[in-house]
Amino acid sequence: MRRNRRVRSVKTSVPSQREVLRDVLLSATECGSWLTLRELAQLTQFGEASISAQLRHLRKPKYGSYVVEKRVRRGLVVNDVEHGAVWEYRLRRGIQVGAQRRWTSKALPFNAAVATTAAPAY
């Protein structure tokens, strides 16, 4: 009789477009360089429009609250196909703010003298 052998498949996770873009931009920032959408498209093989959308997502708290810095590239001769400014980007890790209440953006006022001396009113 033949035994059924289970083939163990190794599950490999393919990084998402957002993760690839994040890693490329963080490594470029460590080197002190700025990248345009076209350069990012050539490095990652993703479209410029989808890269722009992923940059917006990286700003969200859900995806890391990264700071996406943007500036006009200086000294670049723009050809007939491209009109206007050429923007370049870099990514920085966001500053983590302490836990806040979700239902208001104001901090709670805290008066230590009142908190220690006042008795609860029943």
Summary of the model, kept short:
32% of the residues lie in helices and 11% in strands.
Description:
With 122 residues, this protein is an alpha+beta fold. The chain has a domain at 17-95: Orthogonal Bundle (Arc Repressor Mutant, subunit A). The protein has helices at residues 17-30, 37-44, 48-58, 112-117; strands at 35-36, 67-72, 87-92. It has a 3-stranded antiparallel sheet. It is elongated and about 75 Å long. The chain starts with 16 loop residues before the first helix and ends in a 5-residue tail after the last helix.
CATH structural class of one domain: Mainly Alpha
Q: How big is the Rg?
A: 25 Å
Briefly note the CATH topology name of one domain. Answer: Arc Repressor Mutant, subunit A
Query: Pairing-aware structural class of the strands and helices?
Result: alpha+beta
Tally of strands: 3
Outline the secondary-structure elements:
Elements: H1 17-30, E1 35-36, H2 37-44, H3 48-58, E2 67-72, E3 87-92, H4 112-117
Antiparallel strand pairs: 1-3, 2-3
Helix pairs in contact: 1-3, 2-3
